[in-house]
Amino acid sequence: MAKTIEGLYYSESHEWVRIEGEYGYVGITDYAQQAMGNIVYVDMPEEDDEFTAGEEFGAVESVKAASDLISPVSGVVEEINNDLEDKPELINQDAYSAWIMKIRLTNPEEKDSLMDATAYAAFCEKEQ
Amino acid sequence: MENLQKTCLYDRHIAANAKMSPFGGFIMPIEYTGIINEHNAVRHAAGMFDVSHMGEIFVTGPDSEKFVNHVFTNDVSALTPGKIQYGMMLYPNGGTVDDLLVYKMNGDKWLLVVNAANIEKDYEWIKANSTGFDVSIDNDSPQWAQIALQGPEAEGIAVKTLGLDVAELSFYSFKETEWQGKYLIVSRTGYTGEDGFELYSDPETIIKMWDMLAEAGVVLCGLGCRDTLRFEVGLPLYGHELSEDISPVEGGLGMFVKTDKPEFVGKEAIIIQKTEGITKKVVGIELADKAIPRAGYDVEADGKVIGNVTTGYNSISTGKSVCMALIDKQYASIGRPVEIRIRKKTFKGTVCKKRFYDKNYKK
Question: Are B317 and B357 in contact (CB under 8 A)?
Answer without folding.
Answer: yes
